[in-house]
Prior knowledge:
By secondary structure, the chain is an alpha/beta fold. It has 2 domains: 3-136 and 301-314, Rossmann fold (3-Layer(aba) Sandwich); 141-297, 2-Layer Sandwich (Dihydrodipicolinate Reductase, domain 2). Helices cover 39% and strands 21% of the residues. The chain is built from 14 helices and 12 strands. The strands form 2 sheets. It has a 6-stranded mixed beta sheet, sandwiched between helices. Strands 8-10-9-7-11-12 form a 6-stranded mixed beta sheet. Helix 9 crosses helix 10. The protein starts with a strand and ends in a 5-residue tail after the last helix.
Amino acid sequence: MSRIAVVGCGAVGRSVVDLAGDHGHDVVAVADSQGAAVDPAGLETRAVLERKAADGAVGDAAPADALAAPYDVLVEATPTTLGDAEPGFSHVARALSRDRHVVLANKGPVAERYGDVRELEAASRGSVLFEATVGGAIPVLGTIDDYGPERITAARGVLNGTANFVLTRMAAEGLDYEHVLAEAQDMGVAEADPSFDVEGTDAALKCVILANVLACGEREFTLDDATVEGITRVPGSALDLAAEDGRTVRLVGEATADEVRVGPRLVPDTSPLAVSGTRNVVQVETAHADGIDLSGRGAGGPETATAVLADVGRLPPLD
């Protein structure tokens, strides 16, 4: 059993709070942008979530109080930010300075400041795990770790559900991009501002993280090192032509120890990369065991929280 502090109370953070007890953990602190709830003996999580739903804030304490709570594992679930990856990076640094573990749902610290995170981790008794940052519930990083990143030659996949939904609908219904995007927004599949997804940024961040892992410390990648093209310029006619040849178009991200690339790619209809709807898929190429295909839900509160809590369960006791 671990004592968990959760910083960030969006869909993922709320799901971690909701599911932590089922995994045998106590939530001792929860913080959102408005406040915090802290109880070293363990919070009544249902009451915290009900207050969040009713009032928009989890509690009356200051958000900083959650970072000072007596936790074993900090779950960092604030929104991903680019550049300096703040405030997520500072939250990671604070926890490691206290010799506490960190589990990330926030991509920023390991996509934009991977070297800094690893340096802080090396000086701490705590560890940093981040399975949820790449493929939601899909165990991509766990698989790479099991084989050894030095034995993985590449990872590629469809890593954004919104972009994949749009391309799937364009192909199936013969509709243009703008029409399908509006439909996706009405359904809640796409955000009001979908640029992070449809321009390829989200998939690129995930591939940057994969490249950092595969590089084994020999090189550090950030988003600036990625070659990125989104789906906004993919015409419906391209999907029609692809279908005539038994192929389709998918937004595919590729990561190796040397480069990161994201863009629309023609793939055979029979390829695992032709996954439909909002599902994600990752192909891990190994040096001696060919390729491994991993598919599942790459986003969603409960799905991503499941990956977070699996990471919490992997961490060794600190005391």
